[in-house]
Amino acid sequence: MTESSWTAFQLHRHDLQNYMQLVKAYLQLGKPEKALDAANQCAGWLTSLSRLQSQLSEDAGGARLLWTAATCSHLRVSLLNFSPVLDVSPLCEGIAWLEQQAAVHNSKYINAKLTHLPSNRTEEPLSNPAHPLSDDAETADHAKWQILIDGPDLDEWWSPSLAANVLQGVVVTAEIKTKMIHQGHTNG
User: Fold this and answer.
1) Which end of the chain, N or C, is surrounded by fewer C-beta atoms within 10 Å?
2) pLDDT digits (tens, 9 = 90+) for 81-93
3) Is position 118 within any domain?
C-alpha cells in the first residue's frame, strides 16, 4: 500500500461511516439483530486494530502496517514475534490483497495471523495440520513467517491458487495447497 496517512485516514473514516450507516439502516428497518451484527463486526475490526497497534512500534514501518490494516475493514490482522527491523512491504501488500479478495467475495471478515519465526529456529515448521489454511513462508529478505488464515465464509470462495498470493513477495510452499486439497478446500 502506498497511500499516505492522509489517504489512509480517509479510507478508514469511510469504512467506519459505512458500518454506522448499516447500523442505522437496519434499525430503521426494524432489524435490530442485523444492526447488532454490523456493530459487532465494526467493534471486532477496531479491537483487532488496537491489538495490532500494541504489537507494533511507532516507527515508520509500524505506522505503515497499522494504517494498512486500518484501511482493511474485512480483516482482523494479528502479528506474533514481530520485529521493527523487518521490511513491512510484503506484509502491507499481502494485507491489502486479502482485503481486496474479501471485498470481491463479500466476506464478512478474514482472520489473518502472521507469526515471525526466528532465523535460528531449528525445530519443525509450525504449520498446523488441523488448520487447512496454514503454511510457513519466507520473504525475499529471508524473514520466515507462519501464515494462518480463517473466516466464516472462506470455504465459499478460497482456492489453492489464491494461497500463493497471501503475502506478495513471499515464497509460499506447495504444502498449503496439499493440505487444502486433502481437507476439501478446492473451490477454484
Assistant:
1) C
2) 777 667 788 778 7
3) yes
